[in-house]
UniProtKB/TrEMBL annotation:
Organism: Lactuca virosa
Descriptive protein name: ubiquitinyl hydrolase 1
Protein family (similarity comment): Belongs to the MINDY deubiquitinase family. FAM188 subfamily.
Pfam families documented for this protein: MINDY-3_4_CD
Organism domain of life: Eukaryota
């Protein structure tokens, strides 16, 4: 029965594809002067009605198939009201087929208003040609260097925020989800790179250098798809492309694909919303599998000089332009900041959390008068640390500091890099750390200073109730005497308060000690000591991190000056090992915002976050 139905549909499709429906046979020539049309015989009428029904069924099947095609936009330009009458069935089918073929490569054009809004949102109304050049000459490409082959290379300043966010997700898949990157083994257990490195003590350069281009490409596709669906509230993803590609690159080798794409981009510049409207097309998907197929087919385009910009535009369109503006504290400012063209914090937050908020604290902050500013509202897969926190310019919340996977985008004043661990257990908390995190979250929820580390007396009382901390009256009075409570002072009281009262007093001085390794990747190509003169490449640095025990300054001084010896009376003096020799670089300050008092050491050149 199904075969018979398929034959009928194929027959109907062939009929409907004809430019004109076949004329019914007549026994004699038609008299043009006649006022009434020639009546059809019952046999001819039945054949015509059957043909119309079959054509309508074929048209319906064709429209359903086009909607399911991975490269066809759900916001397709196909006509919404398709009449089922026989008067236009063949021409409509012709048009539908043409639209399917066109959307497979082009998608939907933006209106002139949408294109202008998108361009102004990213670059503003007055943008220098230098900034436009930075963002129009940065592809999403892996490093050819063996040691850093898992990393994306940056050649231009500006788009590092986009590249670092993608890099963080790429590392997530490479390190922890290898089964997602091999065809046909998604449900087969595989040993992750992080586990291989921990068990075999093999060098990172050996393992990262052994990654195939196909594996890295799949990690990139998965990462971009996850980010775009995150921006689309996990309901949809919009992918931006350029309609200037007039050659089919399927079946070509990668080098030839890159050459074809590069030739297509010759002479292209995007200097206004008008330019954007002329060349940009967008395709929206509700199926992750279909979006992944589309992204995979577009890898040569994302490798091109327009790749980073196209991905940023895709993320903004996935979120929705109006929604992006409502996320922001000041939507009048461009997302790419002048005068150096850096990606704003809103861009980075959009790619990490799905919302283009400007702040890195948790939740919302009440400014009074019904005004709020928004921070990170949901848990994230990969996190964020910043040098600016060590300089007391902001406070990163626990959502970004403690992501699901031990991978962080690291921000400095002018650049974004990536920090990661091979072992997820570096974030596992012991009893002491878990208690500290609980109390700190409660404290931060009452902090209306934007991360300044102080709260009101009423807010402090709420923290004590939520965390079951019972302070002695004299301690309570001392902390509240100034009308506000500072975290550092409250923390010192907790360290000297017995556990029975909700405190964190540790008589051993050893609680919370950790030793682990972190890796830092800087994708911008720089000269590396020990390499050939003039050779530039990204940097990957291994850091040994030792987090000493949690002690109060008084305990440290007692342990250091007393030499572990005994004084005359009373309490036992605990011998505390002296701090390790430490190396310093700005990255260490970032690490210490996550692990206070961390001691970091490395070999070779210091890690650079600029």
């Amino acid at each position: 029965m199904e075969d018979h139905e398929e034959d009928d549909l194929q027959k109907a499709l062939r009929m409907s594809m004809q430019h004109e429906p076949p004329e019914p046979k007549r026994s004699k020539a038609r008299d043009d002067s006649a006022e009434t049309p020639l009546e059809e015989s019952p046999e001819v009428k039945n054949r015509r009605l059957q043909r119309e029904l079959m054509a309508a069924a074929a048209e319906k099947r064709m429209m359903a198939a086009s909607a399911a095609m991975p490269t066809t936009a759900t916001i397709t330009s196909a006509p919404k009201d398709v009449p089922s009458s026989s008067e236009a069935s063949s021409s409509k089918m012709d048009k539908t087929v043409a639209i399917v073929k066109e959307d497979k490569f082009l998608g939907k054009e933006l209106s002139s208003d949408e294109a202008q809004q998108l361009f102004s949102m990213v670059f503003g109304n007055e943008v220098s040609k230098g900034i436009l050049a930075q963002w129009s000459n940065q592809g999403i490409r892996f490093s050819p260097d063996e040691e850093t082959s898992m990393g994306l290379v940056q050649h231009e300043g500006g788009p590092c925020g986009v590249l670092a966010a993608i890099q963080a997700f790429v590392l997530k898949y490479l390190l922890f989800f290898p089964q997602e990157l091999v065809k046909g083994v998604q449900n087969t257990p595989m040993k992750s790179i992080s586990r291989r490195l921990q068990e075999n003590q093999d060098s990172v350069s050996n393992i990262f250098g052994s990654l195939t281009e196909e594996t890295k490409s799949r990690a990139l596709v998965r990462s971009m798809g996850e980010i775009l669906f995150l921006c689309g509230n996990n309901n949809s993803a919009t992918i931006a492309s350029l309609k200037i590609f007039d050659q089919n690159i399927e079946g070509k080798d990668e080098k030839e694909k890159d050459e074809i794409v590069a030739r297509s981009l010759e002479g292209l510049s995007l200097e206004s919303g008008v330019d954007l409207q002329k060349v940009l097309t967008v395709t929206t998907f509700t199926s992750p599998a279909s979006a992944m197929q589309r992204l995979e087919s577009m890898i040569p385009i994302f490798r091109s000089r327009m790749g980073a910009l196209l991905f940023l535009l895709s993320a903004l369109l996935s979120r929705g332009l109006e929604t992006v503006q409502s996320d922001r504290d000041d939507p009048s400012q461009p997302l790419v900041t002048a005068p150096f063209g850096h990606a704003s914090q809103e861009i980075v937050n959009l790619l990490l959390s799905g919302m283009a908020v400007a702040n890195v604290f948790d939740g919302k902050m009440d400014l009074g008068g019904g005004m709020f500013v928004k921070g990170i509202l949901t848990p994230v897969e990969v996190g964020f640390l910043t040098l600016l926190e060590s300089l007391n310019f902001c406070k990163v919340g626990q959502s970004l500091k403690s992501p699901k996977w031990p991978i962080w985008v690291v921000g400095s004043e002018s650049h974004y890099t990536v920090l990661f661990a091979l072992d997820p257990q570096v974030q596992a908390e012991n009893e002491f750390e878990n208690r500290e995190t609980t109390i700190r979250r409660a404290f931060d929820s009452q902090d209306q200073s934007g991360g300044g580390g102080f709260i009101s007396v009423d807010g402090f009382r709420q923290v004590l109730r939520e965390t079951n901390v019972n302070l002695p009256p004299e301690k309570m009075e001392a902390l509240c005497s100034s009308g506000f409570i500072v975290w550092s002072e409250f923390w010192q009281v907790l360290l000297d308060l017995d556990k029975g009262f909700g405190g964190l007093k540790d008589s051993t001085g050893l609680m919370g000690k950790k030793v682990f390794y972190l890796w830092h990747f800087n994708g911008i190509a720089k000269a590396v000591s020990g390499s050939e003169v003039g050779v530039q490449r990204p940097r990957l640095t291994k850091l040994r991190v030792s987090v000493p025990p949690r002690w109060t300054p008084e305990e440290f001084m007692a342990g250091g000056s007393g030499g572990g010896g005994g004084g005359g009376g009373g309490d036992e003096v605990v011998e505390v090992e002296k701090p390790e020799r430490t190396q310093h670089a700005p990255l260490v300050d970032c690490v210490r915002t996550r692990w206070a008092r961390a001691v970091c050491n490395w070999e070779g050149d210091p890690p650079s976050i600029v």
